[in-house]
Amino acid sequence: MPNIDLSNITSIQPTHLRLLQSIEQAMKNHDFAPLTLINQISNIQNIHNTLSDLCKCGLIAHVGGTADGYQLTFLGFDYLAISVLRNRKIIDLPLRKIGVGKEAEVWICSDFENRKVALKLHKLGLNSFKNARTLRNYSDKNIQWWKMSQLAAVREFGFGKALFQRGMDVVQMLDQCRHCVVMELCSGVQMSRLRGLNVDQARYLGARVYKMMIQMMGFSVIHGDCNEYNVIVEVEGEDFEFEEIECEEGLENYQSDSIANKIAHQHNAQLDSQQFQSDLQNQSTLPIDSYEDIIQSYENTKINIFKSIKLIDFPQLIQLTDDDAEYQFNRDVESFEGFLNRRFKTELSFPRFADIQKCEIINSFQTSEKFARLVKMQILDEEVKNEVEESQNQIAGSKMLLKVRKVDLKTAAKQQMQRVNQKRNQSKRMEKGQNKSNRDRYGGDGEY
């Protein structure tokens, strides 16, 4: 995944941003923006010089051949989003890259109060994630790369914010613009990087992650990608400093010896087994009998060394009623369960989807883009429940959203009658025109 070159972002002029926005607007209905349309939208003098500057910086690409036009690059899309976030006083400038994945890259940023936040840039159009159109329920299979990344960011921000408001242990979402999501910076590590846990600690960690999956089922959603790379763990007494990623490898290939050596000696807190069992019993979807052996093994044992355990990555959330819900849930359980069993020899075996007792939905939660946009606009849950249509489990462009139009029967009947009369009059005109043509050709009454 290419690095972001932000060396020119502080010197970019309003004219350049205006031209980038014009190209972005023109690409909503075109694979590339024709020069005449760019000139018409932007209304900039000396547009060729400005286009040349943007091409030299790699913010746009020229499309030659039979047509003359320009395309917005991912770097240009980054400039547009980061410029807006800077104008909103959300972030200043990205400091360094700390994570690279197949879908996105994560940067540490500082805001204007000198606090550290995380900036996630979705890059679903790159070669590393070209199958996004087929692997996920996009209603438009020909959706453009920039729109696909933008919709993924909208879903992540909206779903993450809704889960946080419902008390889930997830990262707090701060703002979103285009394909960028600004969120709190978790001072922890991915679960895949943990070393030195004993069996009890690993079993407790697995139980906590499984409990969060059950909580999400109570909200009628399935995570869809809950594995060791999407769980952030913060250890008591461990200060973690993020290091810049220089290579094109993911965080899963990076190891921290300091954390691996210290985790084995962290026994700072006493687990309250009765409280943990009470929390599990509050989740009516969970067969408690399956946890008795795990919970009893925690009694009188100092194993809770985790300050926080949080889930990340939410664009792929699906509805509990989806056809793939059982497959996705079981795959998530097998993923983090298999990781703990392989690395820490825990021999965990959590209940699968078919073994879980279904219960009434706790809160209305829809895995649709409309729900995510309404959450972003901070609409209350009661209003969301009334406004959001039944989920279709699809990412759709704004022009393709389903619109529920309430029309009374009298108006519907009147409209139907108008359509019938219109077709009848059209048939009469065509028949009359045909007869006139025959009379002109053969004379008489038009028959021959």
From TrEMBL:
Offer a single GO CC term for the protein.
Answer: preribosome, small subunit precursor
Entries under InterPro entries matching the protein: Kinase-like_dom_sf (IPR011009), RIO2_wHTH_N (IPR015285), RIO_dom (IPR018934), RIO_kinase (IPR000687), WH-like_DNA-bd_sf (IPR036388), WH_DNA-bd_sf (IPR036390)
Which EC number(s) are documented for this chain? 2.7.11.1
Domain of life of the source:
Eukaryota
Q: Which is one GO molecular function term here?
A: ATP binding
- The segment annotated Disordered runs over 412-448
- Ranges of Basic and acidic residues composition bias in the record: 428-448
**GO BP terms in the entry:** maturation of SSU-rRNA
* Membrane-spanning residues: none
Q: Which reaction does it catalyse?
A: L-seryl-[protein] + ATP = O-phospho-L-seryl-[protein] + ADP + H(+); L-threonyl-[protein] + ATP = O-phospho-L-threonyl-[protein] + ADP + H(+)
- UniProt KW keywords: ATP-binding, Kinase, Magnesium, Metal-binding, Nucleotide-binding, Serine/threonine-protein kinase, Transferase
Domain spans labelled RIO kinase: 68-355
Cofactor(s) essential for the protein: Mg(2+)
**Family of the protein in this entry:** Belongs to the protein kinase superfamily. RIO-type Ser/Thr kinase family.
Name it: non-specific serine/threonine protein kinase
